[in-house]
Write a structure and sequence with these properties.
- This protein folds into 2 domains: 2-218, P-loop containing nucleotide triphosphate hydrolases (Rossmann fold), CATH 3.40.50.300; 224-292, Alpha-Beta Plaits (2-Layer Sandwich).
- It is built from 11 helices and 14 strands.
- It has helices spanning 40-47, 69-75, 91-101, 106-119, 135-146, 165-180, 192-198, 216-222, 237-244, 268-280, 295-303, and strands at 2-11, 14-24, 29-33, 55-60, 63-64, 76-79, 153-157, 184-189, 201-206, 209-215, 228-233, 250-256, 259-264, 285-290.
- Strands 6-7-8-3-9-10 form a 6-stranded mixed beta sheet, sandwiched between helices. The protein has a 4-stranded antiparallel beta sheet with strand order 2-1-4-5, covered by helices on one side. A 4-stranded antiparallel beta sheet has the order 12-13-11-14, with helices on one face.
- Strand 4 and strand 5 form a beta hairpin.
- Helix 3 packs across helix 4.
- The longest helix is centred in the middle third of the chain and has 16 residues, at 165-180.
- It is elongated and about 75 Å long.
- Residues 11, 14, 16, 34, 36-42, 81 line the site of adenosine-5'-triphosphate (ATP).
């Protein structure tokens, strides 16, 4: 659905995107994460044909964003991080206005608008003025606006920013529904654990370069250094902790009332070997568990040092 090759964008002498390459398959919900100023919005605006690249190419649905912007625009719905709404419209009129600007006939708009309002949970606000809506509701209305022409790809720049937890959950549910409708979605955010729950894949961008991309679980698995094991042993736990300090791939062993905590740098086979070794030495292992690193940890680990001057 998306093919980005060596995409570079410079603002004056400043390089915001530095030969960024990545592909996103149709039907994927892709989380685009990175610290402030990493280049997420720049990438999304280029995909949305609102900004021209300095060099490199970006294609959406096979169409080049520079050569075929009109074809690209038909395929996409773009929600910027800062959006303007027309406060003197009522909710329904607002969507009707956008539908009309896409050339959608009136009878079709009349059918579609209630469906869109239902999708974004604003049915009961159909006759409210836009400026009377809360921030979260306005954001959902903007999302509905992006959907008036039934685009295949949604480009959502920080849709969860400034939302309270309940509003974010609502947004997540809406995205799930859109995914089930077969849409491809790119969503950027700083709220990493939130993203982890709703995306299939993540791409981590730092200083205009993609520094990691893959399924959330795969990226977590690659992060060997952050694998943290906790082991509880029935008797002689302190003795086991001491032995573990000398074991292969083990670093940072700590022993407290909750058990032995250690960092393990080996792979899955080596991890099972560690457990087997303890049992063979006669230790009665009660639990042997791997702490789940969340996306926040992964992100911090991956970007460690990458942002340093
Ligand atoms: N019009 C512009 N002129 C000059 N520099 C710009 C312009 N737009 C963006 N930049 C710079 O390019 C870099 C990338 O910006 P971009 O908005 O793409 O980052 P981002 O990852 O979306 O960040 P954020 O999460 O803060 O929105 C930043 O350093 C920004 O200051």
């Amino acid at each position: 659905m998306i093919e980005i090759r060596e995409l570079t964008k410079t603002y004056g002498g400043f390089t915001a995107l530095n030969a960024l390459s990545m592909t996103i398959d149709a039907g994927t919900v892709f989380g685009f994460v990175g610290p402030n100023g990493a280049g997420k919005s720049t990438t999304m605006m280029i995909l949305a044909t609102l900004l021209g690249p300095t060099s490199g190419t970006a294609k959406v649905g096979g169409y080049d964003v520079t050569e075929k912007p009109k074809d690209v625009r038909r395929l996409i719905g773009y929600m910027p991080d800062f959006f303007g709404v027309y406060d003197n419209f009522k909710t329904t009129e607002y969507l009707d206005f956008y539908g009309a600007s896409y050339g959608i006939p009136r009878t079709e708009r009349q059918k579609m608008i209630p469906q869109l309002l239902e999708l974004v949970n604003l049915t009961d606000k159909a006759d409210f003025y836009v400026d009377s809506l809360s921030r979260g509701m306005k954001q959902r209305l903007c999302l509905a606006r992006c959907l008036v022409h039934d685009p295949q790809l949604l480009i959502l720049d920080e849709p969860a920013s400034g939302m309270d937890p309940r509003a974010r959950i609502e947004m997540r549910e809406i995205l799930k529904e859109l995914k089930s409708m077969g849409k491809t979605i790119i969503i950027s955010s700083h709220i990493l654990p939130e993203l982890a729950e709703m995306v299939d894949e993540i791409g981590v961008i730092e200083r205009g370069q993609l520094i990691a991309k893959g399924k959330v679980a795969d990226i977590q698995r690659q992060m060997r250094a952050s694998r943290v094991l906790t082991i509880r042993i029935l008797e002689r736990e302190a003795e086991a902790a001491n032995e573990l300090r000398d074991a292969m791939h083990v670093s940072y062993v700590q022993h407290d009332e909750k058990g032995i905590h250690l960092h393990f740098g080996g792979d899955d086979a080596e991890q099972s070997g560690l457990l087997l070794g303890l049992i063979e030495k006669g230790y009665k292992v009660i639990t042997f568990s791997e702490a789940q690193t969340d996306l926040e940890d992964v992100f911090l680990e991956i970007t460690k040092g990458a942002g340093a001057p």
